[in-house]
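Re: the 83-residue chain
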Amino acid sequence: MTAEMIPFPAARRVDLIRSIVRRALELPPQAGEHHIVRSVDLQATVLRRKGVAEALIVQERISLESTIRRHLWETVMRTRGVR
């Protein structure tokens, strides 16, 4: 019998999300985009090492990247005074 590992959703890790967004905003746009992609890739690699099923990793990647981009957008719009 094989146990299925269910990771804590990375998209709920507020400190991780804030850190990625903060760093992406410090960089030029193309480098910021690269940072986001690399960060999501790194989280997927960590999940693979922990033995998480590939289908679940795909879901986690989508969720994490969506959350990062939502927070990025909210941060940019907030600094422009748009709510």
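The chain has a mean pLDDT of 89.
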